[in-house]
Design brief:
By secondary structure, this protein is of the alpha+beta class. It contains two helices and seven strands; from the N terminus they run ααβββββββ. A four-stranded antiparallel beta sheet has the order 2-3-6-7. Strands 1-4-5 form a three-stranded antiparallel beta sheet.
Amino acid sequence: MPGPVTNRLPAAARAATPAGAQAFVDFYVESINTAFAQPSGTALQGLSTPSCDVCSALEARAAQFASSGQHYAGPIYRTRSSSASAQPPGQRVVVDIEQFGVATLDRDGKQIDRNQPSQARFAVSLEFTNAWQVTRWSEIPTSTA
């Protein structure tokens, strides 16, 4: 796994086990928060494969935030729950995420936008070579019935 995040991986997220996959997804969500609250353009590097379109879009948006001096006023996401499959060689983690209503600030600290609070469930596919990486991130539709 290339990139500056390798040394920041918690020990639990380094294990090639279902629990390790779950811990890695929790770390990935926290890394999204870091990428947008303290944008440097590097917080998500190395955590996903090029095949993950959602991950690539998040990295591009975080880099755009960094270059424009924008940032969120605080964490935007919280993992409410997650569960990992026991399907080797990869893993699938289902994660329920809460999005907070957080202000987007410009470089002077002026509010330019605000996210709406929401909740969603995602299926996160992972692979493990020397460390976990996200290969796919997709929303699981929730029934309204």
